[in-house]
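Quick one, probably user error.
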């Protein structure tokens, strides 16, 4: 027993030698489970629809509840972890995640499944900022931290892209609930492993935790996203069900910002957003995730419903995206030192936009080589962007605000994912629905139901049968492909907007130990006079109450 305890204590010494890389492995496994759960349900949507018969709005909430609840609570739990201990909150998140997975696996109806997915979001909100905050604490050196973040972001991409593969295999061989059951043994393993190996880490804020501010931020994010979701579901711009939550959420977020500016011990130091590199990095994370998750959900529907691939075949088709993301993460640290944050983020967005435009060539028939090339470019471009944006955001934040920066980054990540589904889904619905809803010769009730989604159109066509059913099926299929093309063009425009935004980022990767980083930068691109940077972050953050005031 004493030998085991001593070994665990040595491994929990975050600052020493290779131990921090062991910590990184545990953190990456934690992140993998959370990222995987964000997309593992996508290929199971047709099976869930057939079994539980959710309405169109319920189906959207089944998919969206997890990322949106997670996004709304990240600031709350990210800052709470700074007070009570990030490892402690991480372990609570493990237990909650496992419990919610059990409820979701055996959900008897849409309402229970939505509730379980929301509970999964609560557990994810505890896990995600803790992993990034602990990573920031145990890797004070920027070059090592860049390598660690490259691995961390690659694992996030791998989890998101592997989700459909695992989900497809489980749905084909078992039932849709099995996509949640896989979480339970993994979380049961992570609880003792995390308690033994991970170091406890706290932020430097020794003031009172702003409970009211945390609740205001959570309600504000939920209100904004709910309003966007209602607009995406077809509500008009003047519909109170959409405009009401949107305006209320915006007001709450404004009040949250004003409250944080006035408080001596804020949850989030809003002065960080005055730094162009920090605010630009946050915006780039939102845009990148908006494109990735929104396009992936639509691509899954295209592969299954238009091309007729099985869930497992669909997941395998998305594997090139995973491998490309892994390659971008593995080479990210080297690339960042060679070309700098500005070019890395900007060209990552451009490459992703090129991939999206290439995918516009998708049509009614399968083109495997085209899809593979598009997914490879998409995975590499987005992962390049995410890596450089995360690294710039964390390095730009002062060490005493690492917890708040991690919460902001993870909120951006999850909010971008949720907004991507809502925004690109609304564009898709607006392009797809009208031609199906007004189809001549088809009963009004059937065409109205078919306008909700391609899956419902197939169900109505099968019920009608005969020439009328064939007409509905063919029309819906063509409308979906046309809507897909329009959605891809909108996404490409957003990605190019991100490329222009990246111009606000620094040209070179600057470090406290300037000579070490500049050794990796070609002489032609080195600044003549090194910029004065703050000292390398210590392993333990400086308390916020003792940080010096910024000059007027």
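Nope, works fine. Designed sequence:
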């Amino acid at each position: 027993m004493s030998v085991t305890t001593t070994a665990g204590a040595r491994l929990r010494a975050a600052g020493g030698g290779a131990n921090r890389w062991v910590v990184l492995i545990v953190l990456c496994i934690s992140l993998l489970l959370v990222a995987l759960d964000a997309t593992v349900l996508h290929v199971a949507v047709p099976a869930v629809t057939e079994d539980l018969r959710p309405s169109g709005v319920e189906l959207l909430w089944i998919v969206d509840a997890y990322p949106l609840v997670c996004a709304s609570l990240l600031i709350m739990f990210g800052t709470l972890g700074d007070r009570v201990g990030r490892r402690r909150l991480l372990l609570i998140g493990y237990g909650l995640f496992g419990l919610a997975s059990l409820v979701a696996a055996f959900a008897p109806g849409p309402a229970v499944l939505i509730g379980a997915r929301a509970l999964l979001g609560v557990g994810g909100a505890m896990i995600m900022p803790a992993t990034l905050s602990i990573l920031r604490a145990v890797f004070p050196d920027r070059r090592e931290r860049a390598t660690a973040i490259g691995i961390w972001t690659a694992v996030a991409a791998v989890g998101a892209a592997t989700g459909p593969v695992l989900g497809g295999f489980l749905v084909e061989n078992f039932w849709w609930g099995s996509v949640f059951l896989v979480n339970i043994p993994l979380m049961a393993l992570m609880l003792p492993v995390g308690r033994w190996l991970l170091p406890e880490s706290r932020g430097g804020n020794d003031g009172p935790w702003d409970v009211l501010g945390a609740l205001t931020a959570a309600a504000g994010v939920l209100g904004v996203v709910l309003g966007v979701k209602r607009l995406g579901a077809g509500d008009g711009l003047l519909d109170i069900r959409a405009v009401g939550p949107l305006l209320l959420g915006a007001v709450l977020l404004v009040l949250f910002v004003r409250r944080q500016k006035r408080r001596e011990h804020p949850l989030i130091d809003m002065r960080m957003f005055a730094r162009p590199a920090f605010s630009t990095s946050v915006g780039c994370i939102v845009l990148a995730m908006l494109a990735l998750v929104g396009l992936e959900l639509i691509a899954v529907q295209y592969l299954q419903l238009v091309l007729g691939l099985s869930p497992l075949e669909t997941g395998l088709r998305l594997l090139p995206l995973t491998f490309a993301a892994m390659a971008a993460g593995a080479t990210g640290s080297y690339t960042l030192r060679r070309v700098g944050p500005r070019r890395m983020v900007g060209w990552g967005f451009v490459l992703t936009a090129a991939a999206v435009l290439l995918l516009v060539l998708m049509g009614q028939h399968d083109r495997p080589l085209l899809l593979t090339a598009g997914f490879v470019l998409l995975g590499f471009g987005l992962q390049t962007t995410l890596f450089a944006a995360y690294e710039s955001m964390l390095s730009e934040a002062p060490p005493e605000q690492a917890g708040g920066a991690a919460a902001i980054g993870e909120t951006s990540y999850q909010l971008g994912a949720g907004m991507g589904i809502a925004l690109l889904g609304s564009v898709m619905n607006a392009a797809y629905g009208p031609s199906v809803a007004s189809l001549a010769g088809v009963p009004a009730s059937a065409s109205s139901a078919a306008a909700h989604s391609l899956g419902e159109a197939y169900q109505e066509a099968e019920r009608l049968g005969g020439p009328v059913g064939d007409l509905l099926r063919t029309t819906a299929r063509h409308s979906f492909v046309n809507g897909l093309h329009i959605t891809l063009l909108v996404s490409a425009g957003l990605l190019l907007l991100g490329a222009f935004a990246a111009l606000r980022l620094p040209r070179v990767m600057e470090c406290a130990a300037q000579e070490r980083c500049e050794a990796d930068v070609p002489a032609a691109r080195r600044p003549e006079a090194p910029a004065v940077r703050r000292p390398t972050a210590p392993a333990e953050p400086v308390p916020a109450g003792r940080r010096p005031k910024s000059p007027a």
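Residues 179 and 214 are 32 Å apart (CA to CA).
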